[in-house]
TrEMBL record:
It is a peripheral membrane protein. InterPro entries: ATPase_NBD, Cell_div_FtsA, FtsA/MreB, SHS2_FtsA. The keyword Nuclease does not apply. Belongs to the FtsA/MreB family. Cell division protein that is involved in the assembly of the Z ring. May serve as a membrane anchor for the Z ring. Residues 24-223 form the SHS2 domain. SMART domains: FtsA. This is Cell division protein FtsA. The lineage of its organism: Bacteria, Pseudomonadati, Pseudomonadota, Alphaproteobacteria, Rhodobacterales. It is found in: Cell membrane. Keywords: Cell cycle, Cell division, Cell membrane, Membrane. The keyword Cell membrane applies. Self-interacts. Interacts with FtsZ.
Length: 442
């Protein structure tokens, strides 16, 4: 397991370098928009003051923000390198201009890349009387990594539970007395090519990649309140090209997945159904869309409006009931797919089964009522937590992953336990493998 931590360690060193300089950029690479936030850290290293995603959020302030229309990204993955590079440059330059400072390091989030979740377990004898960092490092490296296949890389590996002798449910076992330490870990792997494409694209923009995160994970960090993260909740991040899904309990993510459908597919259905351009379909969806029809909707007429130059064709009107008839089947299909993933993850066995909808596509009127019918649970619409300096325009559900990435940048949960392992405790073979893996992948 030791070699899996090497990329995290490299990222952590980059992040530390960025935090010493005092600024780092957050980049949310989505299918419909690319958002960039510039953070200024106040000089204290927030990783010292707590463990977990919500431990002391006062370490940074947003000093620049910009969004641009995403280009070259489909299903949350890069399809056209040149177009994506131009879009990232546009967003980063606009955010830098607002912040009045140059940024060299970025922490990026992306959806897609076919995430898969694994549960791992490890167990060791405690060396002394109390558990120290060496024991935690040894139990984490004792977790047996499954064979997750060629061409896949570990994106997140988090201990979700420690047990000392017969006492389970420990968050941080350091300093406690016991004999046998065991650990449960959640590991998320993604398609390696998708990560490498994103890393290469960021490099082409003359930026250093100081961290990577899954959009589903960071959306959950920002949209779920503390009680929901503790008792058990699912965050459904409905973006443009993909819908991310993450399940949290005890403040840790225990499952993540992605459905390759989102708000852009609803827009595409409207475009084909009403025979209007995509831009017009997006406007109609935003202003008049919905998923629950009422008796009034037959009488409410919508002008489709076009730019074809044919006056008769451009003057067409449709009823809102027709629009809802086009939108609802696709939204139902997305929610049914989410339901399948939740069932596969065993979500109905959690003590609390709150579902939080976030992402730009979650703002369709009536979506929460339809979701509670299909998913059969309590559903609420989520907005990202407030962070210092965030502009009003960036406080909507569409910015949940960008805000979550800010919290992740200040408190990377993957990294607080990744202690430096002394060479003499490790077999030479595993170190060789670690170096080889590191050289191949980063």
């Amino acid at each position: 397991m030791i070699e899996l931590y090497e990329s995290q360690r490299a990222m952590r060193n980059m992040r530390r370098a960025a935090m010493q300089r005092g600024v780092v950029a957050i980049l949310d690479v989505g299918s419909s928009k690319i958002a960039c936030l510039v953070l200024r850290f106040d000089g204290t290293d927030p990783s010292d003051d707590g463990i977990g995603s919500l431990a002391g959020q006062s370490g940074f302030r947003v000093i620049g923000a910009a969004t641009t229309r995403s280009r070259g990204v489909r299903f949350g993955e890069i399809h056209s390198m040149g177009e994506t590079e131009r879009a990232i440059r546009t967003a980063v330059q606009a955010a830098q201009k607002m912040a009045g400072i140059r940024v060299d390091h970025v922490i990026a989030a992306f959806s897609g890349a076919e995430p898969r979740s694994y549960g791992l377990a490890g167990q060791v004898e405690v060396m002394g009387t109390t558990v120290d960092e060496q024991d935690v490092a040894r139990v984490l490296s004792a977790c047996d990594a499954p064979d997750f296949g060629h061409g896949r890389e570990v994106l997140h590996a988090q201990p979700v539970n420690f047990a000392l002798d017969h006492r389970s449910g420990l968050i941080d076992p350091r300093g406690q007395i016991g004999n046998e330490l065991s650990c449960d870990m959640h590991m998320l792997t993604v398609d390696g090519q998708a990560i490498q494409n994103l890393a290469y694209c960021v490099k082409r923009c003359d930026l250093e990649l100081a961290g990577l995160a899954s959009s589903a994970y960071v959306s959950g960090i920002s949209a779920l309140v503390e009680d929901e993260q503790e008792l058990g909740a699912a965050c459904i991040d409905m973006g443009g090209g993909a819908t991310g899904l993450s399940i949290f309990i005890k403040k840790h993510m225990i499952y993540a997945d992605t459905v390759r459908m989102g708000g852009d597919h609803v827009t595409s259905d409207i475009s084909m159904g009403l025979q209007v351009p995509m831009a017009t379909a997006e406007r109609i969806k935003t202003f008049y869309g919905g998923v629950v029809a009422t008796g009034m909707d037959d009488r409410e007429m919508i002008e489709t409006g076009g730019e074809t130059g044919d006056w008769e064709h451009d003057r067409r009107t449709v009823s809102r009931a027709e629009l809802i008839g086009i939108m609802r089947p696709r939204v139902e299909e997305i929610l049914e797919e989410v339901r399948v993933r939740l069932d596969a993850a065993g979500f109905d066995h959690l003590p609390s089964q709150q579902i939080v909808l976030t992402g730009a596509a979650s703002q369709i009127p009536g979506l929460d009522g339809l979701a509670s019918k299909i998913l059969g649970q309590q559903v609420r619409l989520g907005r990202p937590l407030r962070v210092h300096g965030l502009p009003q325009a960036a406080t909507g559900p569409g910015f949940a992953s960008a805000v979550g990435l800010c919290l992740f940048a200040a408190h990377p949960q993957d990294e607080w336990w990744d202690f430096e392992l002394p060479v003499d405790r490790l077999p030479a073979r595993s170190l060789k493998r670690a170096v080889q893996w590191f050289r191949e992948n980063w």
